[in-house]
Design a protein that fits this description.
Number of strands: 9
Shape: globular
Organism: Strongylocentrotus purpuratus
Pfam family, one: F5_F8_type_C
InterPro entries: FA58C, Galactose-bd-like_sf
Number of helices: 0
Protein name: F5/8 type C domain-containing protein
Distance between the termini: 6 Å
CATH class: Mainly Beta
Order of helices and strands: EEEEEEEEE
Length: about 100
Amino acid sequence: MYRIDGVSTQGRVHRVQWVTDYKINYSVDGITFDTVQDILTYPATDKVFAGNSDTDTVVYNALPQPKVCRYVRLLPVDWFSKIALRMELYGEPPVMGQ
């Protein structure tokens, strides 16, 4: 289990393809996934993160609240040309005892 607090994305190398908006799902067991919520809306709605506008720029997005999980999925909402991305997760080392 990790405590995830952010994600960075980039488009596809040497191709004009990238994801412009996405949602993030997370799970403890890999079966049941929850979607990161926008805590600034009432009632809370799925948070849509701004993605990329080119192939090489790194775009960092912080999660509204850290999530303790084992699995993370990025769900493209919108994209340019084709769905393609590189991603990196940020957070804490494994949470002990979980």
